[in-house]
Amino acid sequence: MTVNTMNDTVNHIRTMNQEELVHIMEEVALRRSYVSRSQLRTIAIGDTVEFTQRNGTVVQGTVRKKAIKNVTVETTIGNWKVPAHMLTVV
């Protein structure tokens, strides 16, 4: 998506009424769920993955367990439960 398209979308959202906003929010939630599940399907137990912590540090580890929403990643500093959409396969 280009910057102009993104700006046009944001401007359009700013003019929406309550009913339209609720519909958009439902669609965004569905899309986020789809993207997360798609990412989860691409990850296998034993894969090396990385994610970024809240402080900006990149952490690398190995997938040990997959659940419905989260993936357990074993790192040198312990195990992390990370949402699938935050992981990148290395």
Strand order, sheet with most strands: 4-3-2-1-5
Count of DSSP H/I helices: 2
Q: Termini, distance in Å?
A: 25 Å
Report the radius of gyration as a whole number of Å: 17 Å
How much strand? 25-35%
The CATH architecture comes to: Roll
Poorly predicted runs of 5 or more residues: none
Average pLDDT rating: 93
**SSE string, helices as H and strands as E:** HHEEEEE
Summarize the amount of helix as a percent range.
40-55%
Helix/strand class: alpha+beta
CATH topology: SH3 type barrels
CATH level 1 name: Mainly Beta
**Count of β-strands:** 5
Tally of distinct domains:
1
Largest sheet: 5 strands, antiparallel
The rough form would be described as elongated
Structure, briefly:
This protein is α+β, with helices and mostly antiparallel strands and 90 residues long. 41% of the residues lie in helices and 31% in strands.
Any overview of this molecule?
41% of the residues lie in helices and 31% in strands. The chain is α+β, with helices and mostly antiparallel strands and 90 residues long. The protein is built from 2 helices and 5 strands; from the N terminus they run H-H-E-E-E-E-E. The longest helix has 25 residues, at 18-42. A 5-stranded antiparallel beta sheet has the order 4-3-2-1-5, with no helix packed on it. Strand 1 and strand 2 form a beta hairpin.
Summarize this structure as a short list of keywords or feature phrases.
single chain, 90 residues, alpha+beta, SH3 type barrels, five-stranded antiparallel sheet, 41% helix, elongated
